[in-house]
Amino acid sequence: MEGKKISVELSDMYLFKGVSKEALRELSSLAPPTSFKPGMTLFNQGDKSDVALLLLEGKLSVEVAIAGQHREVGAINVGEIVGETALFAREGKRSATVRALQSCTCLIISKELLIEGKKNPAVIAIERHLLGTLARRVRRTNQEINKLWKELGVNDESKESGSGWAKKLKQIFQGPR
């Protein structure tokens, strides 16, 4: 994608609604689009994490390896960001492997981009999108924890919840009372 074309593509994305073409052109010069072929691995689980990707075209697959088994845990669609933890965690490791399912184009989002472009409305839109993404993931994790607690009887005061995993979960997530 070229400068003018990229700013048109970006302006069509909901995340950049209301952002000027000038700010989008500046964003595309600060974070030039990068292309990936189908089947390419963009991130490997366990590798050092230092950037996130904003998907502009194509589709990505997210998988995790646990005890030697690989499981697809999600897909990344146009307009979504993947690898965002890298922007906030020091010396973090990738928690999943990300592969291109189709030909893909992404903007590489780095800590440096967020600092250098701090006054650019397009970068501010990315930061808002990152915060929204993180908030949704925390909410979903909390819902899954609550679901697990209910399955294990942790929240049911009439049952004894003092053994095994239920006890450990309660200690971890409820803390000392």
Summarize the structure.
This protein is α+β, with helices and mostly antiparallel strands and 177 residues long. It has one domain: Jelly Rolls, CATH 2.60.120.10. It contains 5 helices and 8 strands, in the order ααββββββββααα.
Verbal overview:
The chain is of the alpha+beta class and 177 residues long. The chain has one domain: Jelly Rolls (Sandwich). Helices cover 38% and strands 24% of the residues. It contains 5 helices and 8 strands, in the order ααββββββββααα. Strands 1-8-3-6 form a 4-stranded antiparallel β-sheet. Strands 2-7-4-5 form a 4-stranded antiparallel β-sheet, with no helix packed on it. α1 packs across α2.
Uncertain segments: none
How helix-rich are the residues, as a percent range? Answer: 25-40%
CATH-assigned homologous superfamily: Jelly Rolls
CATH topology: Jelly Rolls
Total beta strands: 8
Portion of residues in beta strands equals 15-25%
Structural class, judged by helices and strands?
alpha+beta
N-end to C-end Cα span: 56 Å
The DSSP helix count reads: 5
What shape does the CA trace take?
globular
Nearest-angstrom radius of gyration?
A: 20 Å
| Tally of individual domains | 1
Major sheet: order of its strands?
Answer: 1-8-3-6
- Write the CATH architecture name: Sandwich
> What kind of sheet is the major sheet?
4 strands, antiparallel
Mean pLDDT: 86
- Taken in chain order, the helices and strands follow as HHEEEEEEEEHHH
CATH class: Mainly Beta
